[in-house]
Amino acid sequence: MDFSQLTEAQKNAFDQDGFLVIPKALSAEAVTALLIITDTKARAFLDKYDVPSKAEYNQLDFRPGLLKYPATIDLITNPNTVPLVVQLLSPNIHLHSTALIYKRPSDPGLPKMRRGWHRDIRIPRDLGHVNLPRVGIKICYCLTDFHDHDDGLTLFARGSQRFDKPLEMLKGEVDPVDVEVCDLKLNAGDALLFDNRIYHTASPNRSNRVSKVLMFCYSYRWMKQEVYLDNPDPNALRDYDPVTRQLLGEYIDIDTPAWALQAWAKKNNVMPDAVPWHVDIEH
Ligand SMILES: O=C(O)CCC(=O)C(=O)O
């Protein structure tokens, strides 16, 4: 995996906002190659009858079988995004989940509907909202342009990864108060990294075209990979480079060091300092 340096400005922006836009993370050719795969996966959904009056009918969140293609395997080590994830988390990560999200057009005149604001991976259900750690980062790759308001891109509550409480909403409203709700404007090929703790939600696509994204989530290796992530069988793993193999979960034993990404991080001078179990103190 080629190296990209996480700049101080990018790190600060991610810490502050909980998300970071990487323009042109995918070439136009890569977007085209991915669309051939994703449109095939979404074929039944794309061929359904139009029901613009039911926004919930128009959303596809498809997970299994996405890693069976050279173009999606390549995406696991995208050099414009994944090096930044390694620098924001650590080399001790793997691919946690993949998802294809398509939204067909819904009637722009529909009343505002209840949304699904949440933090990822349900971690607060066990740990609560206070001192919640950053344990995963999702990369959302745009396969279509998102140039207008309500174009179908996930909405984010800026900075809410730092909140130590549930979102507050006025009764009957669909969005939180006292926090900026971001409906970002991106181009096909752009990527958006976001922190597992940031509050975000799906929202209807009120444009007249289908919106399409691919999401790849990375987490620490001590977090179980999602059941839908179809890891290739161990024999097939041999065909991939060491970093891809690590990210696909090659080191099953959690105590095995993250050899491949550690070597990569050392080579590129971004190996984090070791955290000791004990330190010597003066008598
Ligand atoms: O469908 C969407 O835009 C929201 C996606 C989402 O909530 C997620 O990836 O956790």
User: For the report, how would you describe the main beta sheet?
Assistant: 6 strands, antiparallel
Number of domains: 1
Radius of gyration: 20 Å
Number of separate helices = 9
Bound molecules: 2-oxoglutaric acid
State the strand order across the main sheet: 1-7-4-9-3-2
CATH third-level topology: Jelly Rolls
Q: What is the ordering of alpha helices and beta strands?
A: HEHHEHHEHEEEEEEHHH
CATH class annotation: Mainly Beta
Considering the protein shown, what is the CATH homologous superfamily?
A: q2cbj1_9rhob like domain
Regarding quaternary structure, what we see is single chain
Mean pLDDT: 94
Q: From the 3D coordinates, which CATH architecture would you assign?
A: Sandwich
Alpha-carbon distance between the two ends? 47 Å
Class based on secondary structure composition and strand pairing: alpha+beta
Principal-axes geometry comes out as: globular
Low-confidence stretches: none
Count every beta strand, where a strand is a DSSP E run of 2 or more residues.
9
Name the helicity range: 10-25%
Give the DSSP E fraction (strand runs of 2 or more residues).
Answer: 15-25%
